[in-house]
Design brief:
single chain, 334 residues, alpha/beta, Spore Coat Polysaccharide Biosynthesis Protein SpsA, Chain A, four-stranded mixed β-sheet, 9 strands, 19% strand, globular
Length: 334
């Protein structure tokens, strides 16, 4: 088969009810030179073939029989990629129509070691949208400081990079959550550098109903002491050699406190206090972390209220995505 510019990799596990939205956003791209690789976990119990059937496009490839976590599916899809570049998309997220076009402009003008990500529209189900992250990684800023202390965000569904770089830097398949952070860190350690495109190019659904099923929300909804928590914190510890004390304490305050809050609340509180004493968190952020750790439902209500008050109405590109008809095969152009 002929090579393509982009291989879009979409992992799924019981996501037949959302994957169509992700597929549709790919087919509506202004850059049409791509393939879509859907990797469905063998343990899925829904009908992924039926979900893909309405999107009758030869560029969609379904890979079944993969057993593991999202990281396993992403690795499988990346290894199958025929594209020059890989673009990652979660099965309940969406690309904005110019996502690949804008990525291509940046990738073609940069060395193969450059990884691009962008801002994201976050839909919390309150009628308005929020844009994250507020800033990108700085040229002289290390990845640990950006992700752990600043709480920057390299959203998986905005990442685009050279395919060979992606193939040589696998996701850790034992991580049930945080594999997006691990992937970014391992790319950084390999010499890759990140640039944020300062415009939202993806949609992220973060409603109360969707939160418990998202891998990134696992720490909040699973009782502390789970094996997945131990594995992730062990990985964080493996990175300590690269972090200053404030960054390390910030990582612990954000992750560790939430993981152990139900079973060891005093230890969770001490981790937040230690971050404050190390200068990793201001007084206001420490208070916010305490609420997020011990009262996640209240924290969500406060965040939703902030978006209702200060968020933005869906802009034209989001409305266009919602209203556009799928292109006919003979209308497609590379």
């Amino acid at each position: 088969m002929a090579p393509v510019l982009f291989s879009i990799v979409i992992p799924t596990f019981n996501r037949a009810h959302t994957v169509g939205r992700a597929i549709r956003s790919c087919l509506l791209q202004t850059c049409q030179d791509f393939e879509i690789i859907v990797v469905d976990d063998a343990k899925s119990t829904d009908d992924i073939r039926a979900a893909l059937a309405p999107y009758d496009d030869p560029r969609i490839r379904l890979e079944t029989g993969c057993v593991g976590l999202a990281a396993t599916a992403r690795n499988r899809g990346i290894q199958l990629a025929r594209g020059k570049y890989v673009a990652l998309l979660d099965s309940d997220d969406e690309f904005l129509p110019r996502k690949l076009e804008v990525n291509l402009q940046h990738l073609q003008a940069a060395p193969s070691s450059q990884v691009f990500y962008s801002q994201t529209y976050v839909d919390r189900g309150v009628g308005k949208l929020w844009v994250k992250p507020s800033r990108g990684i700085l040229p002289d800023e290390d990845i640990w400081h950006y992700l752990f202390k600043v709480k920057g965000w390299i959203h998986t569904s905005t990442v685009a990079l050279d395919a060979q770089l992606a193939k040589s830097t696998p996701y850790r398949e034992d991580l049930k959550f945080g594999d997006d952070t691990q992937f970014a860190v391992d790319l950084w350690l390999k010499g890759a550098r990140f640039t944020m495109i300062e415009t939202p190019l993806a949609m992220y659904e973060d409603t109360a109903a969707s939160a418990p099923t998202r891998l990134s929300q696992t720490p909040v909804f699973v009782d502390g002491g789970a094996e997945e928590h131990r594995i992730y914190m062990s990985w964080v510890e493996s990175q300590r050699q690269y972090m200053d004390e404030a960054t390390y304490r910030a990582a612990y305050a954000f992750f560790f406190s939430r993981l152990i809050a139900k079973k060891a609340p005093l230890a969770a509180l001490r981790s937040i206090i230690a971050a404050y004493q190390a200068g990793a968190l201001s007084g206001r952020k420490s208070l916010g972390q305490i609420v997020q750790t011990f009262a996640p439902d209240t924290y969500r209500w406060l965040a939703d209220s902030m978006v209702r008050l200060r968020g933005m109405a869906p802009p034209p590109d989001v409305l266009a995505l919602r209203q556009a008809a799928l292109p006919r095969p003979n209308d497609r152009a590379a």
